[in-house]
Specification:
Shape: globular
Largest sheet: none
Structural class: mainly alpha
Order of helices and strands: HHHHHHH
Helix content: over 70%
CATH topology: N-utilizing Substance Protein B Homolog, Chain A
Strand content: under 5%
Mean pLDDT: 94
CATH architecture: Orthogonal Bundle
CATH class: Mainly Alpha
Number of helices: 7
Number of strands: 0
Radius of gyration: 14 Å
Low-confidence stretches: none
């Protein structure tokens, strides 16, 4: 697993934990960054968590629109975290190509969630990638 893939997984871990425990993701991230007993937090992980939080309202709105038949609250928490990260990289980060953002999210879903999750993540992110975007 490459450095960026590891950074994405760490970001999903933080987003998942904060969601599950009802914590602020930025505060949880700050705890992880300053914890000497934990592995150092990659700068890309930090930028991902901050990006997801900064665009949280738009990300959740887009997910609600594209996850047909699945309210955000009904999604497994890990899928929600993976999708939030995927949407951020897909639509709000100029650093990552669309295909890479989708593929990385699918790989995280394969690693962390159910057998059906990669197909679900692919469908939602694929639909979002196909939407027209303003330049």
């Amino acid at each position: 697993m490459g450095a960026r893939s590891k950074a994405r997984k760490r970001a999903v871990d933080i987003l998942f934990e904060s969601d599950l425990r009802g914590l602020d993701p930025i505060a949880l991230l700050a705890e992880r960054v300053g914890a000497p007993e934990l592995a150092p937090v990659n700068e890309y992980t930090i930028s991902l968590v901050h990006g997801v939080v900064e665009h949280a309202d738009d990300i959740d709105r887009l997910l609600a629109e594209q996850a047909h038949g699945w309210a955000l609250a009904r999604m497994p928490a890990v899928d929600r975290a993976v999708l939030r990260l995927g949407v951020f990289e897909l639509l709000f980060s100029a650093e990552v190509d669309d295909a890479v953002a989708i593929d990385e999210a699918i790989e995280l879903a394969k690693l962390l969630s159910t057998d059906d999750s990669p197909r679900f993540v692919n469908g939602v992110l694929g639909a979002l990638a196909a939407l027209p975007r303003s330049s």
